Every structure is written in structure tokens, then in C-alpha cells.
Amino acid sequence: MTAPGGAAPVRAGGSGRADPERAARLRRLALTTLDANWEHDHTVPSRTLYPHQWSWDSAFIAVGLAHARPDRAWRELRSLFAAQWADGRVPHIVFNPALRAGAYFPGPEFWDSARAGGAPAAATSGIVQPPVHAPAAWLVHRRAPSEASVAALRWLYPRLVAQQRYLTGRRDVGGGGLAAIVHPWESGLDNSPAWDAPMAAVPADEAVMRAYRRHDTAHADAAHRPTDLDYARYVALVDTYRAGRYRDEGLLGRQPFLVECPLVNAALGVSERALARIAAVVGADPGPHRDRAVRLTEALVDRLFDPVTGTFRPRDVRADRLVPARTVLGLMPLVLPDLPAHHVRAVLAEACSPRFGLAARMDRPLPTHDRTAPDFEPLRYWRGPSWLSTSWILWQGLRTHGRADLAAGLRESMLDLVDAAGCHEYFHPDTGTGLGSPAFSWTAALVLDALDEG
């Protein structure tokens, strides 16, 4: 195993449970990172790059905090859902009003959420992120059950239901039972090659960026971040959505980017199953959640599985076709417990192929894009680097479908990355070198979960 900056591939070592010294070291590092990033009622992803509250970050953070700070895990989720919109959307950013205007781009003045109907009193963005919150809430309760956790579930349950209803209702633009995203940021994988084809249709002028000042490249190497052209298109998409006051009626007629994402929709299916379990605890009927979970899996298989290549792909709703890129998004439906056996085998074949390299003993960490593709970029954000979030989701899917051997290999690869490089935002998919923020909260949180659940 190599230290940060080395050239040798990261190799999976011994089990964290068999090496208590390593486990204790990683646990201390993770807790120190999370404590340093705690901000009165939530955890910032990073003190430098991301100084506000992010939606799916908070869900992952709560999962990790459940093992050491369960009261803080519930505060994490409550603070996020306190900023939920009246239509049920959970915004992807909740802004800290204590920070000066212009301290982050795109900040609250850019989103101007106060002008939208149904927006909360808090300043937020107008878009969403993958709905991983219901499974997170269930995991927090399962790992630290108490009267307080039941009370927290009672408060969250109707809000989680509203989140699901928003995505499966207002966002079913394609009419096939899946939610569409209106911006790459909603996928969580901002500049993934999966979005190149649909984003090519988004008109943008790089000169538009002269009106703004990017803050990410002040804290991270520009070669590791989305390009200015990417950002120009991101801004153009927000401009269009904001001009319509973030309404979802008539999206086909005005929003140039509309895509059904495998990760977002797999998360919706898993969320319905988590909601069925939560419903049983809080005295609601779990049956409708189970029924909706089945329908979501069926729709995902029907609309997003490509039998020619044997992998799941996003669907460009406007063009009504699957996008060509083979990314880690195609592996995410494995998290669905009712995924048919044929499709489980297909996902495993894709994951274990040279494109992604999943194995019981991994030579290199899991990349976010096909490492054999000509546009694979090992340094640039979601175009190749390894992230613990997508690895953790796949790890959950492997355990769900009884592949303990592959799950163990992926878990060790995740722990080895952090042991060698620290709690970085993401990692070089060959050397394991840490990239992005050096003290990233969801990396720390998911390490805690991998240590305790391995």
C-alpha cells in the first residue's frame, strides 16, 4: 500500500476487525474529522470547499454518526428536513446565514429561493440530490434504537413520504414511473461522463462565468474540478429553472436537461422499503411502501437496463434514449433487494470487469467511470476518481445479494484508501492518492460504518 502521492496501486490488506490497531486509528481519524466539521446543528462536508449543509452528505454523515454520536445523527437529519419545501423537495444545499454574502458560489443570492412559491424561510438551493435519507434514518434507528430514535422517526416519517411523493409525482416527466433530474448536480455525480451527451444540448457561453467567481478552484486544483464550460452549462440550467420559479409543470417544454438517473431511482426504491420498516415502527401502514418499491424496481429495469451491454444506463428523457457512457451509476441498482437475478448477474459482471475491477481482493479502488474508456480521467472529480459514497452504496448492494466475498474486498479497499491518504473527498483510482478536500465528512462517516458493519 502506498502513501499519498505514490505511484503503486492500493492493495487490500487485512480485515479491520482482525487489525484492531488499524481500526482504532481509523475510528479516531473519522471522529476527529466529523467533530471538526460540526456546525451547531449539522455537519459541513468540508470547512473549505463546502461550508454549508448538503443534502445527501447529511444522510451519509448520519449513518456514520449513528455509531458514535446518535443524538447528533438525528439533529443532522432534522436540520436538513426543517428546510424542506412545501411541495416535498429537500434542497441540495441549506445555506448558513452566518456566512457573508459571496463567500460561496453558487450562494443564496444566486438561487434566490425566497421568490419561489413554497420555499422555506431558510435560504436554500432549488434543486435536490439523491433521496438516500429514508434508508439513512432507518440505519440510524437500527444501529442506536431508543425512545428518542422512535420519536425522531415519527417526526421524519411524513416528511420522508413527502420527499418520495415529490420525486415520483412531479418529477415523473417521462411518464414511465421514474423520477427525472433537471440538473447534473441532482445526481450527486456532477460532471460524470454520463451527462456529456444530454449536456451537449445545453446552450452555454463560457463568458457567462465572468459574472461569477468560482470558489472551488481556490481550494482545489482546477485540473481536478469540473471545467469552466461545465460550470457555464450548470449556470444556464439553473437560470432556466429559476426563471420558472422552480416549478416542475411543463418541464419538457423548457428545461433542456431531463434525465432518469439509475442512482436516484434506485435510491427511491430502497427508500420505499426503508419507509415500510419505519411505518411499522411509527404505526403507519407499510403495505403501500412495499407496493411502490416493487413498481420502482420494475420501472427501473424496464426503462434503464440496456440488454445489449448488460448494464444500467441513464435515460435522456428529451431524446428518449439511453446515454452511451458506462459509469458507476450503472452499478447502483444492485442496492435494490428485489432486483431480478438476471440483472444482479449482469451488474456483477459489469462491476467485476476490467472497467471497474471489483474483486474479493482488489488491486485498485473502484473508479466512478469505465477505466478502459478513452475519456477516463483519473484526477477530475466524477470522471474517474474513487469516491467512498458510490463504493459504500455498491457495498450495501453486494451484502444485500449475498456476495460476502466481493463485499469484503470492496470494504478493505475503502478502508485502505483512508488509512493511506486520510479522509479525502475522493481518491486517485490507481494510486489511491487523496484528492479534493483533505477532511471530508462523508468519507469519515462511511469509514465509521464500514468499520462497525464489516
Automatic annotation (TrEMBL):
Residues 1-12 have a biased composition (Low complexity). Residues 50-443 form the Mannosylglycerate hydrolase MGH1-like glycoside hydrolase domain. It comes from Micromonospora chersina. The keyword Flavoprotein does not apply. InterPro entries: 6-hairpin_glycosidase_sf, 6hp_glycosidase-like_sf, Glycoside_hydrolase_63, MGH1-like_GH. Pfam families: MGH1-like_GH. Gene3D superfamilies: 1.50.10.10. GO terms for molecular function: Glc3Man9GlcNAc2 oligosaccharide glucosidase activity. One of its GO terms (biological process) is oligosaccharide metabolic process. SUPFAM superfamilies: Six-hairpin glycosidases (SSF48208). The keyword Hydrolase applies. Belongs to the glycosyl hydrolase 63 family. Residues 1-21 are annotated as: Disordered. Keywords: Glycosidase, Hydrolase. This is Mannosylglycerate hydrolase MGH1-like glycoside hydrolase domain-containing protein.
